[in-house]
Amino acid sequence: MTGVSTPTGQIPSRLDEESARPSLAYPGCPSHTYQMSPPKGSGLDVGGAEVEPWQYLPNPWRRHVAGLSKEERETLEEIRFRVGRPVFLYGPAGHRPLTGEGVAEAVAGEEIERVFAVLIDYSLYARADELRQGFVTLPGGHRVGVVARAVVEKGAVETVRHICGLNIRWARPVVGGAASLWARLGETGGGLPSVLLLSPPRCGKTTLLRDLVRQLGDRGFRTVVVDERSEIGGAGADGAPGYPVGLHTDVLDAWPKAVGIQVALRTLGPDVIAVDELGAAEDCAAVERARLAGVAVLATVHGGSLADLADHPQLSRMLARGVFDRVVVLSRRRGPGTVERVCAPGDWDRSEL
Amino acid sequence: MKGVGALMVMVAAVALARLMGRPYRLRVRALEAWQACLARLEPEIGWRQLPIRQALARAAASDPLFKPVLARLNTVLDGQEGGFGDAFGRALEEMPGLWAEDREPLTRLGRTLGESAAGYQEGHIGMARGEVERLLAAARDGGLKQAKLVETLVALGGVAVVIALM
Known about the structure:
Chain A is of the alpha/beta class. Chain A is built from ten helices and 16 strands.
């Protein structure tokens, strides 16, 4: 499959400047880390939505999280509520319980229900589809995982009840984080490469994807994000993306991936389509259709290594057919966003897949 | 001088009559407002699936009677002191014209709003609409007749005073 030709015109061409830098060799090149929390003077900005997910929490938790030191708050990754246990804060340095006036040592079920009601703005019906998948997304793209008992009807999850845990994850846009990755993708026949980002959870796939999208959109590529979980664009309250996604980027917010890709192909004339967390057979088929239509695809998938994709019939077939030009393997070894490998088609041989 | 006095008595009597009939007329007006609001709320929740606050704000936007209700609702919810049902019940107290019996079905509705899937929400709103329609019919039939009777009696009382003065 061929890539998309680079558009020409007067649009600032940041990618050209970046790709002109000496590219690092791959595979087997040394690990590289892009910063989730950019250090001072790094030239990277945390852009986009300024609303921290903790601001959606009711008191007393909101008050106590707001009262944390600036450093701790800015590196906070998750806050977890579990019934009968303390509220825990998770960050790069580990975890610790949230303590303070009014914060119980063990969270009651009613408190979790109350927190959840506030998070969803008292509108369960508006979040029913998300809830069936076990999460809700807050404005700004922050995902709240919901631990509850499933109510199953005809083999499908109809709703959930008895919510006994919440995992609130902070989605942080990192502007400029993907710049160095472009240089490492190397030549792919003059076209825009289709890239699959592969890693276990919490390794920065979505953050990296968001910045790849932003860079392409800013450069003039007509980019469409099919944002099933509102995590890439970080849907704002007014429906506009909450994060900087690029001047020429359209976000199909909350669209199921397969349907959204079809709509994008039919109506939005994309150069590139971006989707998060590929996996379902119909999503993979839609991505293949997009590639056959000459559209580049940026996607993410859960997995520790290429070998993990071997058991996935659709994904292994897609790799074998060359649907993706590059697979970028990420880890947390040196912090979220550590690029372990950038693999080209020759690298995934049958022994690995 | 007598003529001026008679005129003043008549004006006062008519004003008093209107004042005494006002609660009946305002009740009809408030119930009509809720009837329209619930009709608009149904698609905002069932079809557009807007969050409840936004849905209510849109459904109630055209009627100034709802202004204090929405203001109170948002204040209570922003304070995150309780659930939506509680906040809705407190907000209803701000609605002019509603009688205690009118608040009951609306309070019941408030306890269910936002608590289930859209289809069920439409069912709850439909039930509340039915009850509001019944109350409205009663208010129109009995209440307005009562209002007219009170107004007429008070006005006639004024006329009687004028006749006595003459």
